[in-house]
Amino acid sequence: MAKAKHTILVVEDDPLLLDLYRLKLRAEGFAVVTATNGREGVEAALVSKPELILLDILMPEVDGYAALKKLKSDERTKKIPVIIFSNLSQSWEIEKGLKLGADDFVIKTSLTPAQLAEKVKEYF
Length: 124
Known about the structure:
Helix content: 40-55%
CATH superfamily: Response regulator
Low-confidence stretches: none
Protein name: Response regulatory domain-containing protein
Organism: Candidatus Buchananbacteria bacterium RIFCSPHIGHO2_02_FULL_56_16
CATH topology: Rossmann fold
Number of domains: 1
CATH class: Alpha Beta
Number of strands: 5
InterPro entries: Bact_response_regulator, CheY-like_superfamily, Sig_transdc_resp-reg_receiver
Domain Response regulatory: 7-123
Oligomer: single chain
Strand order of the largest sheet: 2-1-3-4-5
Keywords: Phosphoprotein
Largest sheet: 5 strands, parallel
């Protein structure tokens, strides 16, 4: 089997959505690493050194904003692009994510997994 083109870390606490995104991104040729909360996401980023992170906001243990802060303050992970994908859609929430260093903010309910995969491809 050919080596996957790029490694994506998906941090999502909903197992059904996590599976859906993983399957779609793998079908598009990406290597996919997953985590189910912000703490696991930060650890997975340090270990797997992904080229892009898809980060949910509302999660148990450590939320996406706190994880983003940690990722952007660590020399080893601060240059990895982060796309927040959340159902939070208030302008102040989007602004907060971008101010903390996210490269993009995508509303989950407005994108199908295929559209999300297309968005990911824009980064490569």
